[in-house]
Predict the 3D structure of the following.
Amino acid sequence: MIGGDITGKTITPIFEKGGSWTAEYVGGWRTAQSREELEKLEKDVRELGSYPYRTTESEWASLRQSETEMSDVFEQVMADSIRRWVKIAEERLRPLGCKTIFNVGNDDLAFVGDLIRESEYVVYPNETIVQIDDYHEMPSVGYSNMTPWNCPGDLSEKELLSKLEKTTTALTKPDMSLFNFHCPPYDTQIDVAPKLDADLKPVLTPGGEPEMAHVGSTSVREVIERLQPLAGMHGHIHESRGLSRIGKTQCFNPGSEYLNGVLRGLVINLSEKKIDNYVFTEG
Ligand SMILES: [Fe+2]
């Protein structure tokens, strides 16, 4: 399962000129002389969370003049990327007989959900309950409380609470369910991020360290406190990898370190009535 925030925020133009390709990469310029080198460059750009885009200097200059055209290109590269991941899941995971679930996060535009829905194999779970096995149901909500960036899936706590309640209403056994809520619960060890000022710059302590703050959702916490599922599975706050307990519920956040090319995850082993064990993964 992928828990959301799956689309990038930047495009890296790769300029074609005279049979080679050049792109800005990690503060410098990198040139690819062959198709193989070009593909490697594109892969490295993707691993930094950006979208490689083959273009020419004149086409790029013209795109930068038009917000609409740039936005079209953005949607196109996002769509290509989602379709590529869905295809990988269909080719590699479907033969294993396992279920694959891709949800959106607050960073993702609404059309991303429509793209995932195109697959006959990958499940798009947002605002629904997915039956994980014979015993466990999983309600999913891919939105978050308001962030300083005004993302497409940012909601007020009141709106978020309404979606959480609506999605969990039909659970038959809430205490045996797994909540797949993108945003972690407020005031835990898994919702801590650097505090930002009005210019989105980190607030520093007198000692020069970034000041940290709890930024999770009070609505997510409220619903977990009330229904006490087996697990809360969250993401959203990259810095807050870990586990936090709310009553009987174990809430997890695998964290994220994609900027360093590290994929972080979590494996939970379940039996009928409990979590047998879990392991945080990275690779
Ligand atoms: Fe997020």
